[in-house]
Amino acid sequence: MMASDDFIVKNEFLNDGGSIHIYYLEKYKDFVAFGFSAFMVMRALKTKEISVQQGYSKELQMPMVIIGKKEMEVIMRDGVIKQGTVEGKYYHLQSFIRLDEAAYDEWAKWLRGVD
Description:
With 115 residues, the protein is of the alpha+beta class. It contains four helices and six strands.
């Protein structure tokens, strides 16, 4: 499955924080998560003292994290995130961690460089 920008935006628009969407995108040659999904991945991996590259997608107008192969293996192997469905290069997982929307908003502002 090739994830289009519309597919990604739709997934994050409908995301209430209980889902984590991760995509393998050729553009980055790595796994990437956006919006709430990115925040949840970052927080989940932080519990394992693993960091990911954080950024802001101007194209999609939302935060993003780039997830390396090693970090993706930790996610899948160690149960950092509840297992979900895997469709080719798209992962739809469920999170153990509750979404903190205020913390997400602060993080998104920081990534955008907005005070």
